[in-house]
Amino acid sequence: NLNTASGTDITVASGKTIKAPGMVVQVQSGQCITQTTLSSNRATYTDVGLSVTITPKYANSKIYVNVTGNGYASDATDNPLHKIVRTVGGTATAIARTDYMFYGSPDGNGGAYCQSVMDTAQSTAAHEYKIQMRSDKDTGNVYFNVNDSSNAAPAANESMLSTIMVMEIAQ
Fold first, then answer.
1. Which of 122, 153, 161, 171, CA to CA, is 20 to 30 A from 3?
2. 43-68 pLDDT, tens per residue?
3. What does pTM read for this prediction?
4. Does position 75 have pLDDT exceeding 60, yes or no?
5. What is residue 4's DSSP assignment?
6. pLDDT-based confidence at 153, cuts 50/70/90?
7. Residue 82 CB-density burial (10 A; 0-12 exposed, 13-18 middle, 19+ buried)
C-alpha cells in the first residue's frame, strides 16, 4: 500500500515514475487538414499524411490507437480502403484494415472513417503509426480528408480534420 506522509498528494522525486497496470503512461496525437487525392490503384496502399510517433517507456505496454477521418471514391462502385501501419526500426506492419465501411451515392462512395485498435509495444524504440489508403478499383480517384462535395476546394471551405491518437497503457 502507498500512503501519503502528510496531506493528500503523492510527490514523486525527479527522475522517478509510478507505474500501475492499466495506467495511461503517455498520449501522443497528430492531425491533418489537407485533402489527399490518389489515383485509383487497387494494388498499392499510399500514405495519406496522417501519422504520429510514440516512444514507449515500457517494452511490455499496450498501445491504444484511435483514428478519425473520412474517405471518398469518385466512382460509385469503388471504395476507399484504409489501414493502420506501425513502423518500428524500419519494419512496417499493418495492424488494422478497413473493408467496405462507407455509404454510396450515384456520384461516388464515401463517408466517415473511424477505427481503433489495441496494439502491443514492440520495444522502447520509437513507434510510428500512420494511415494508408488505396482504391478497391482501378478507375477514378480516391480521396482522404475530403474538403467539400466537389473534392476540389481548399481546406478553408469545409475543412475536415482527421486525427490519430495513441496512448501507452502500462501492464
1. 171
2. 889 999 999 999 999 999 999 999 99
3. 0.85
4. yes
5. -
6. very low
7. buried
Q: Smallest Cα–Cα separation from 82: which of 69, 65, 64?
A: 69
Q: What's the gap between Cα 11 and its chain centre?
A: 34
- How far is Cα 105 from Cα 101, in angstroms, rounded to an integer? 14
Rounded Cα gap, residues 162 and 50, in angstroms: 7
Residue with cell 466537389: 150
Nearest to 50 by CA among 144, 122, 157: 144
What average pLDDT score do residues 118-136 get? 96
Give the other-Cβ count within 10 Å of 10's Cβ: 10
Whole-angstrom Cα distance, residue 121 to residue 61? Answer: 5
Q: Are the C-beta atoms of 108 and 125 separated by less than 8 Å?
A: no
Query: What is the residue whose three cell numbers read 527522475?
Result: 15
Residue 151 has which C-alpha cell? 473534392
First to last CA, the chain: 18
Output phi, psi for 121, to 5 deg: -55, 140
Cα gap 127→63, rounded to integer Å: 10
